[in-house]
Amino acid sequence: MSIDKFKDKFKEEASDNINDLENALLELEKNTTNKDLIERVFRAMHSLKGGGAMFGFTALSEFTHNLETLYDKVRNGLKVIDRKILDITFEAADHMKSLLADELMTNNEIKTKHKQLAANIESLISDDTQTDVIPKSGSSSESSIKTYYIYFEPNPDIFANGTNPLYLIDELNSLGNCKVFAHFNKIPPIDEIDINKCYTYWEILLATSTDENSIADVFIFVEDQCKLEIDEVADNDITIHADFIHAITRLAIEKKDVGIVEIKNLIKKLKLNANVALAELNEPEKRIESSKVKETTISSIRVSSIKLDQMMNLVSELVTTQARLTLFAEKTNNTELNAIVENMQKLSRQIRDNAFDIVLIPIETMLIRFQRLVRDLSQELKKNVVFEAIGAETELDKTIIETLTDPILHILRNCLDHGIELPEVRKKLGKPEQGKIILKSFYSGTNVHIQIIDDGAGIDPEKIRKKAIQKGIISENDELSDTEIFDLVFMPGFSTAENVTDVSGRGVGMDVVKRNINELRGDVVVDSEINKGTTLTIRLPLTLSIIDGLLVRIDNDLYVIPLSVVNKIHVVDHDSISSKFNNLIVLDGVQYSFFVLRNELGYKSEPPKTERLILVSYETGLVGLVVDEVFGENQAVLKSLGKLYKNQALISGATILGDGTVALVLDTNKMIKKFSKNSEIIN
Amino acid sequence: MKSLNNIKIGTRLKILVGLAIIFVISLLGFETYIVNKRVITRNTDLQVFSNIDQISDLIDHHLISGKAQIHDAMLILSNTLGQSNSLTINKGNQVLYTEDIQGNKTSYNTYQWNFKGEIINKNKEFIKSFDMNAGVKVTMYQKYKDGYLLIFSNIDRADQSFVYQSTLAKSLPEIQKIENGEKFETLKIVNGNYINYLCDPIWLNGEIAGMVVLQNKALDFSVLSEILKRKKYFEDGFVSLIRNDGYFLYHPELQGLQANQYNFFKQLAKSTQEQNKIEFLWPENESGKTKFFYSKYKTGLDFYITIIFDKGNLFESLNKLVISILFAITLAVLLFFAIISAFSKKLVGNINQGVNFAQKVSEGDLSATFDLNQKDEIGVLANALNNMVVHLRSIVDQVNVSSTNIASASQEINSGSQQLSQGANEQAASTEEISSSMEQMVANIHQNTNNAIQTEKISRKSSEGMHTVLNSAMQNRRSIINIAEKITIINEIAFQTNILALNAAVEAARAGEHGRGFAVVANEVRRLAERSKFAAQEIDELSRTSVDVNDEVAKLMEQITPEIERTSRLVQEIATSSLEQNSGAEQVNSAIQQLNLVTQQNAAASEELASSAQQLEFQANKLKENIRFFQKESTILIK
Amino acid sequence: MMKNDSLIKINSYLSFKLGDDEFAAHVGKVLNILELVKITPVPKSPEYMKGVINLRGAVLPIIDTRMKFGMSPTQFTQNTCIVVMEILMEKDTIQLGALVDSVLSVVEIEDDQIQPPPSLGSKYKSEFILGVAKVEEKFIMILDMDKVFSSDELILVMDSTEDL
User: Fold this and answer.
1) Which of residues 67-96 of C touch B (CB under 8 A)?
2) Same domain, B403 and B521
3) B283 preceded by cis ω (within 30°)?
4) Strand pairing partners for B137?
5) pLDDT at A496 over 90
6) What residue ranges do the domains of chain A occupy?
7) A546-679 fold
8) Measured between alpha carbons, how far is B324 from B317 in angstroms, rounded to an integer?
9) pLDDT of residue C6
């Protein structure tokens, strides 16, 4: 491997490190005293410095060294994180990215910036007078942990309410370190046991940073059905002391109840007071920390995305070849071969699913860029905005995420620029000064929805209308629904902002956004209410390349219906179908509307006597689709029909079957929507 | 059996009926004897046991009267002693008693008892002042510490039949009763005597001071014997009482002796029944008589009440009955014989007359008669025999006439049958001639058939040949079509090569100058592909025409084939029909042979017929001779 | 693949037949010639768009060139071929298969052999025709394939004043 390859590798790692650094900084901004976070920042810098020196990124290495010195001071309590430090670190992180791209600083601009930043950092290190300290409630997050003694004895008939006391204890466990002593001495002899009664009671030591009230909240629903005592016994986490736990466990075994008095005595005896304990406390914490680091390094490896793409292509080929093999095996009718083929099919399906999993990455990975954008831009625009991500763990195909980042960035820019008002305006409107942008992601069937929700000014449909008329997109007489009006936003060359800023509003953008999303087989919808906010919903397929489908026949052509929407298959007589003019059929006592695909798709040939009705999910209910024959399950490698068929709404793509012929994959949602519009029967 | 038939009928009847009477009367007598014996035995048993019960009742009566006596005595005694202050105890004076039981001497002191001033202790006289039955013995006891001490008794030591003891322990049953202030009563058996024993407490100043014991004989056998002696059963039967140890309490002769040595007692002792009946010999040897021994056990008194009597006495009358039955049988048999003899004499005489008549007829004398003027069975028989002879006479006449007729007819048959025989012989000769000429004809037909079969084989072969030709034509056609198919493939290849070459040309053209050389090659390839395509088309056409020609041939062949097949079929039919003809001729031939055989048989049969007719004539004449044996007139005998 | 610049310098053309007329396309546009395979129709699409086929694992749309030119639909014969072409469409390069009655050959036509299309008297619209060349006594119309296939309209080539 040449040194260049090593350099590339380092660059990848370094950009990851910078990402992590930014991430940690963003969190540190919220909680400036968190030692964990400071440690994280420090570690990221340290890696950058070390790697940089090794692979010849001297400038980077030196630059980071200074920063590291700064954070070393913070770590050792010589300095406190303040706005100044944070700002400079953010700037430094950006600069590091530039340095990675241009290690020799050929660009003068970078060079100047480098010098300036280095100087600033130097001055910060030497400046011992602390100003602008960000105050923080609760001086120390670590020492706020207290240990509580909880005595919990449920009434015997607690089960009658359907309460499981163990869930309550689980909940306690989630609040902090928890030591639970269950007592069984009230359990009667076996012949007297009533299985509907609870005889067990518990003593629990809970070390938590939450206060007594929130502990009591755990028991809020059983308050009047149990004996409950909650007492603070120590101002630190005493559950980590082996001696203490050992002693108390012995007590619990020997005596029926340990009791609060005993515990307090023990604490006194073992001198587990806060100040004394603190020194010891650091020891186990560190241990935990180091083990975490270890775990993360082992659990993943880095693979280049080109390799992943290649693998996906190969998997697609494999699936197609597998289909051919299956077809051949069926024709050959050799049982041994069939068994092997079946096994092969199973394996290839697993490989396929695995490959998908590999190329699925969480939306989280995009977040840092969004957060940075919101932070930087809101400062620049003098707006107070908080960015929140819900469901960031939602995963999407790597290529989708890659294509999606820019459109979302653009949407966010729009939100910040046009959506969120200036604090004064918000105050006048009676809204909180701080605006809010939420990025919400969630699964819906085989789709992923990503919503960008802001609580800003909203879009005035009337304004859009006027503008559209002005631009000649619609005529004065066109009557449009709100949704249709909002859709105009995505028309090319459309921008409603009164002042074109350098951030957005240049009129290019939203049409590109829509096109990009459409290319991913997704769509985008805007919903808005004046002064309440705007919600932009992007709907995307989970993956691009392979779907599980149901292979069906209409006339002589084969079609694939995504298995994810298929609910049930019924056999129906053609006569019984054709006699229903209102396209409604009752199956298993439920009425469904249905469409005969051979009619809808324009086939003229004679239909078979018995047909198959496939119930597919549509919106909230089920709709029947009538086909000639159902062949069975099929893994379809989805191929685009190409630009020539871009107006084709019913077909989401094509797939190549085992025998080399092409089957079309139906987009049931769009199809049903279109048919219903045609027939005017469903909404 | 034969010897029985030789005895005269009368005698036979006598013996049979006599035996029957003897058997019936004997049976009746025996039955009567058995029934009577059973009845007598049962009645005797009932009677004897009821007698025993009477004796038992008698003994019970004696017991009751004994009890009454002792109770009366106790009443008197207690009344007398119970008079106020008549009985006192002087504790100051003590009386010494010495008891001697089999040499064991014990001494004790009692208080002095007074009755109306008189000392009671050892004073036998004072009791005499009481008006009491002499048989009742009195004993008095004083209560002392753990028991009772004797103070007075009027029983003599010599009187073995009663009991008294000087000291009585508290544990004794009588003492326990007395201590409760009650009476005690029991029946004691002392030295074989039955004693009533009655105790009563003596009350003094409200306390029990002592007790009185009264005893008397419960059964006095001297009195009982007198009564029992008078009882007699079945002449010599008598009563006896035997104790369960075998001692005869009462017996008219053996009183006071032991019975356990005798067999009947041994049998009795073994039995667990209350009532017993034993049969035994007395005296106990072979000359002894059989005796019946009835007994009943008297439970409370432990003895058997028995009645014994001679068995012979009981069945005397029955034996007499047997003798009288035997006598009656003898008498009845004798009487029967007398009556039967008288009847049979008359019956035999008539039968002898019939026998004589039958002998005459058997000698051919049809004039004999059997007249008997009687209406009974024998009379009827005589009439029937007479009628029979009359009928016989007329039959003999008829036979005589008929046999003459048969003789003349058989002569005629004889001459006719000889003529028939001659005709049959002539017929046989002519059928033989027909048969030989028929055989000649069959041989000719056979030759014909063989020729037809040969022809058929040849025609079939030619038909098969035609088929082979046709098949070959078909195969030829398939081959050509195969070639055509292959040509299509070549054509296809040529087409694809063409496209490939075109693609190569495009590719070459796109490569510009660099591809120019290649473009030439690609064009060359294309041209070659085109040429092979044309060649293939030519072959295709050629093969098409060749298929047509072939099809023409096949069509012609197909047309000819059925003609040949038809010829073959016709020849086959000829062969079949000549085969049929052959078998038909053979059938005719065999029929003629059969005819020949039958004709010859006919000739033989007619000859046989002639000889039979001669035989017949001879026999008819012989019959006529024979019939002359019978006498036609009652007076003329032909011999 | 070669850059367009170099391809333009080449003066080779693929000639093919539609009905009785001969046409030619620059080999730079032609990728491949395929024999006829089963075409999967795409419902609810214009009639001249015959459907799609499997081209070595990719989906290739097929266009009935005759119909696009306003002639009667292509009759499938042994000579019917699919010419795979690369067309510039709204700045993107796309691939499509054009049905032709038969492919003739690759011919070299020097630029000076090409005459401008006759503006009058031709039954084809001149805007789609780059020029006319006479090869072996026959006239071949050289088509501008990008223009022919990048438009959605149906009757393009045929001059509306004339009928075939």
Assistant:
1) 78, 81
2) yes
3) yes
4) B215
5) no
6) 3-126, 146-276, 306-361, 363-541, 546-679
7) SH3 type barrels. (2.30.30)
8) 11
9) 56
